[in-house]
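Hey, can you fold this one?
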Amino acid sequence: MADSIIAYFAEPGNLELIARLKRSGLNMVSLSANIEKSGSPISGKTFVLTGTLEKYTREEASEIIEALGGKTSGSVSSKTSFVLAGKEAGSKLAKAETLGVKILSEAEFEELIKQ
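Sure. Predicted structure:
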């Protein structure tokens, strides 16, 4: 099997296909790269997602959060741990600010899931 993998990546046409997919915006980062970490800073935390994220769909971000032991909610409350705010975040962001809930940018979220 290893020989087949080596042979695949030795083909210039296959490498060009991968390069074209990357240039087209295909996400080449594995969602499972940080999954199943015990002691994750996300474990037991509640997230609310708002606005448009650049690197993830809301579903992808939710899957990452849940895989790391967190959960997502549709509304902000005093029990919310973090609000992940993308572009054009609205009333959920405003409520989080009022309640003093920690607001994460997408970059801060990525740093958190790497821990």
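The radius of gyration is 18 Å. Let me know if you want another pass with a different chain boundary.
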